[in-house]
Write a structure and sequence with these properties.
Layout lengths: L2 E6 L5 H13 L3 E6 L9 H8 L29 H8 L2 E7 L1 H9 L5 H8 L4 E5 L3 H5 L1 H12 L3 E2 L3 E4 L6 E5 L3 H11 L11 E7 L3 E2 L5 E2 L6 H12 L3 E7 L10 E5 L2 H12 L4 E4 L6 E3 L18 E3 L3 H6 L7 E8 L5 H9 L4 E6 L11 E8 L2 E9 H22 L1
The chain binds cytidine-5'-triphosphate.
Cytidine-5'-triphosphate binds next to helix 11 and strand 16.
Length: 414
């Protein structure tokens, strides 16, 4: 949880900063609040003090009873220079609302209050959320001051358009909701080291299409949902994720590099290009097992009766890359089976030389293809793990937990 310095300047929207302070404190962050003298004409320091559990700082010459510490931290043994110590301890500084006057002072580097002085001394990420009358916001002076701040690396949270806090006023200049302000500030906080930091993960998703002629193809019913859930979960754990998506219509998860392919041959080439660089391969795509031996260049007419389609098998992508695998790589295959037998999965585990096969029963209508939930068995050399019916997001987490366990064994062996 982070230490957030909240600067409140003079504007009607200052009342929203109280709710922001409440939400941030409830989320577990430690807050200190600094207010400009004008802000105190809109809301009182006592409200902030009650919410965050620490005195509000308004004057750079006053003594800080907490000596620059944030709630939950030990104060220094000596009496530091208040504005320097509090910014030194902050993980982020947000000024919300930032009035036109305060924006102008920050852009000019003026230090005439606790807020403006602390802002200049702060090396942690600094963000302002301007809020004011729409004409004051649109004025060239304000826009130029905001551009100056942006150029210097200060984040600017754009104001909303709508009814302004002052009665009867409408336009651009409204302070965004406290929920959005908190989300924006949390997004720039330095994140704690994640469990999969430094791990490169390759996920394949979707189903390949093998052309018969320019219009028709051989395909399958895979939606790519399971692969997307795996990619998103691995990214959340801090991994560097590449997703190879075969005909997936759903949007890719944020923070994931995506390569789009159509046929099994394209999927095979994309996997081969990435494989050596990755630590984990999650082969959730459903490649077609057969393709047309000679796809027609022209659309086949229905008059081509009797129609015969000669098929040839496609390459087994997973078995192909596994033949060349390193011991520090973890390979997982996914088998959609009709019926419950795990024997076929065990033989695939050996035949494809992978570390686990995730099996699901696609004969059940409530799970599997295009469904948002699934129920799987993870078959490993040392045994099986049942994952009860759950959302594909939760199934993805359970699969990643097993990969963590398999990789922990790897580290022990080396
Ligand atoms: N797979 C692959 N290349 C193929 C077919 C499948 O890499 N041409 C991968 C799938 O992505 C999956 C795993 O192999 O991770 C198991 O897929 P499955 O279709 O169950 O295996 P097959 O080898 O096709 O066996 P069968 O069709 O006989 O069940």
């Amino acid at each position: 949880m982070a230490r957030i310095l909240l600067g409140v300047s003079g504007g009607i929207a200052a009342y929203k900063a109280l709710e922001l302070a409440r939400l941030a404190t409830k989320a577990g962050h430690g807050l200190r609040v600094v207010m400009t003298p004008t802000a105190q004409r809109f809301v009182g320091p006592a409200s902030f003090e009650g919410i965050v559990g620490a005195p509000v700082l308004t004057d750079e010459f006053e003594r800080d009873p907490m000596r620059g510490a944030f709630p939950g931290d030990e104060p220094l043994a000596h009496d530091p220079i208040g504005h320097l110590e509090v910014v030194h301890n902050a993980d982020a500084f947000l000024v919300a609302p930032a009035s036109a006057n305060t924006v102008a002072k920050l852009a000019a580097g003026i230090c005439d209050s606790m807020l403006t002085t602390a802002f200049l001394a702060c090396v942690a990420p600094r963000t302002v959320a301007p809020a004011m009358n729409d004409r004051m916001y649109a004025d060239a002076a304000t826009q130029s001051n905001l551009a100056t701040l942006r150029e210097r690396g200060v984040g600017v949270i754009e104001p909303d358009t709508g009814a302004l806090a002052s009665r009867g006023e409408y336009g651009t200049g409204r302070l965004p909701s406290p929920e959005r302000l908190l989300a924006e500030i949390e997004a720039i906080l330095p994140s704690a080291p994640a469990a999969w930091d430094g791990l490169r993960v390759l996920v394949t998703a979707g189903g390949t299409r093998e052309p018969i002629d320019p219009v028709r193809f051989i395909g399958n019913r895979s939606s790519g949902r399971m692969g997307l859930a795996l990619a998103a979960a691995a990214a959340r754990r801090g991994a560097d994720v590449t997703l190879i998506a075969a005909n997936v219509s759903l949007p890719p998860p944020p923070g994931v590099r995506t390569v789009e392919v159509e046929t099994t041959a394209e999927l095979a080439a994309a996997v081969a290009a990435e494989f050596r660089a990755v630590h984990v391969l999650l082969m959730a795509a459903a490649p077609a097992d057969f393709r047309a031996a000679s796809p027609e260049a022209e659309k086949i007419s229905r008059e081509a009766d009797p129609m015969r389609l000669a098929l040839e098998p496609t390459e087994d992508i997973l078995a192909g890359v596994a033949a060349d695998r390193r011991a520090d790589q973890t390979l997982v295959g996914f088998a959609a089976e009709t019926g419950g037998s795990l024997e076929r999965a065990r033989s695939k585990l050996e035949r494809k030389a992978v570390d686990a096969i995730v099996v699901n029963d696609v004969s059940r209508p409530d799970i599997g293809f295009d469904s948002t939930s699934n129920e799987v068995t993870i078959v490993e050399r040392s045994g099986e793990h049942q994952v009860a019916r759950a959302s594909k997001e939760d199934i993805a987490e359970a699969i990643l937990d097993r990969i963590e366990a398999l990789r922990a064994k790897l580290t022990k062996q080396t």
